[in-house]
Design brief:
Strand order of the largest sheet: 5-4-3-2-1-12-13-14
Order of helices and strands: EHHEHEEEHEEHHEHEHEEHEHEHEH
Shape: globular
Number of helices: 12
Structural class: alpha/beta
Largest sheet: 8 strands, mixed
Radius of gyration: 18 Å
Length: about 290
């Protein structure tokens, strides 16, 4: 019997307009009515994840920043896995030499040094997801998204990192030329920092966390804390940062729009995020695992 469901957000739970389709909302509330806990497992920080959930009337626990920080449904931080300051600075040294744009996600939010580069990089992500859009429209959508997803623009993220009240939880990197630049960068980080885990949630980004900050590790931790076996857990996602939780759960789904690698690891494949594939997967998992 399914007792816990963990779902990715972008490209999974959310549609192209960053909303949760009503069919997904209905399925989640149906699961909750059966006594099944639903939670999100996202690369976003909590403040970035909240608006879509609040809009849909969904209150749940959250695995955020790929597993670097976990919150209960009341918003209390349960645990976190951070990147040491010295390590974070060395990573930035390495990436900035390659002219790779970086942001840091912390216990106090996400910080960037360039509004223009963030908009440009998010426009590339929007165009990747919706190739029918013109570059101008993608820029406009990315600019509007800044109002929806809070971020702090500062002169120096290094100065922010050195503040005593700041804990670095994730470094996210973007390059408009995608894997041509980011592939070698990922290899460099992996070769130089054995205590870090490098993954991705899109073709033009890298996400760098502490090696214990992975969605799969967080899901297993929560399941153990709840007294739930992993064969009673359902996970669903679309991208590389979802692989660890796809592997962790006995009932796992890849989105129809997911990467081929994710589909290889998942036990099942559902419909796309545009077609409310999460809702379809939830109903199927409950029906087949009574």
């Amino acid at each position: 019997m399914i007792k816990l469901i963990a779902s990715d957000m972008d490209g999974t739970l959310l549609d192209a307009n960053m909303h949760i389709p009503e069919k997904n909302v209905a399925a989640i509330k149906y699961a909750q009515a059966q006594g099944i806990e639903f939670m999100v497992a996202t690369g976003r920080n909590r403040l970035e994840a909240l608006p879509s959930l609040t809009e849909a009337g969904i209150k749940c626990a959250m695995i955020t920043l790929n597993g670097a920080q976990v919150f209960d449904e009341e918003g209390n931080s349960i645990f976190m896995e951070s990147i040491e300051l010295e390590t974070a600075e060395k990573v930035l040294d390495l990436l900035e030499k390659e002219d790779i744009y970086c942001e840091i996600s912390t216990n106090k939010g996400t910080f960037s040094q360039s509004k223009e580069r963030r908009i440009e990089n998010f426009a590339t992500m929007v165009a990747e997801a919706m190739p029918h859009l013109t570059h101008k429209v993608a820029i406009a959508m990315s600019t509007a998204r800044l109002e929806y997803l809070p971020i702090h623009f500062v002169d120096s993220i290094r100065e922010v990192m050195r503040r005593k009240d700041i804990i670095v939880l994730k470094i996210i990197c973007f390059h408009r030329d995608g894997s041509a630049f980011l592939g070698p960068a990922a290899r460099m980080v992996n070769e130089n920092f054995t205590n870090l885990f490098v993954t991705s949630s899109g073709q033009n980004n890298l996400e760098i966390n502490h090696h214990l900050a992975q969605k799969g590790i967080a899901v297993a931790h929560i399941a153990k804390d709840r007294g739930i076996n992993l064969d009673e857990v359902m996970t669903i996602g679309d991208n590389l940062n979802d692989v660890s939780m796809i592997q962790a759960a006995d009932v796992s789904f890849a989105m129809g729009n997911g990467l081929p690698e994710v589909k290889e690891y998942a036990k099942y494949t559902t419909d796309t995020n545009i077609a409310a594939g999460v809702g379809q997967a939830i109903y199927r998992a409950i029906k087949e695992n009574l």
